[in-house]
Design goal:
InterPro entries: GxxExxY (IPR026350). About 40% of the residues lie in helices and about 30% in strands. Strands 1-4-5-6-7 form a five-stranded mixed beta sheet. A two-stranded antiparallel ribbon has the order 2-3.
Length: about 120
């Protein structure tokens, strides 16, 4: 599956999770529920995937963690905030660049409609 095909299916599952839970919960709640539903749907998913930073050819663990990595291709950064900011976008783009991934989804579950809280983040796609 391509990154776009994966993202389309993941968005549908994320909307199911949001419809079941609604806005206003902690980010970790959405992460655990989305992780469960993605695994149930047959996706390979890694939670809190550590991603090193390479500085002068040395791998450094600087504490970067991808919320969910789907099929080793799609980065999911989950938020439960009043509104997404440029800093959230930059954080997701940093994960894409450090891991050499092409596509990420920034998902704000604290939206009345999840589709209003989805932002695609692209790195050389």
């Amino acid at each position: 599956m391509t990154e776009n095909e994966i993202s389309n299916r993941v968005i549908g599952i994320a909307i199911e999770v949001h419809n079941a839970l609604g806005p206003g919960l902690l980010e970790n709640t959405y992460k655990e529920c989305l992780y469960y539903k993605l695994v149930q749907a047959g996706f390979k998913v890694e939670k809190e995937k550590s991603i090193p930073m390479i500085f002068e050819e040395v791998k450094l663990d600087c504490g970067y963690r991808i919320d969910l990595l789907v099929e080793d291709k799609l980065v999911l950064e989950l938020k439960s905030v009043e509104e997404l900011s440029e800093l959230h976008f930059a954080q997701t783009l940093t994960y894409l660049r450090l891991g050499n991934f092409k596509l990420g989804l920034l998902l704000n579950f604290n939206s009345v409609l999840l589709k209003e809280g989805i932002r695609r983040v692209v790195n050389k796609l």
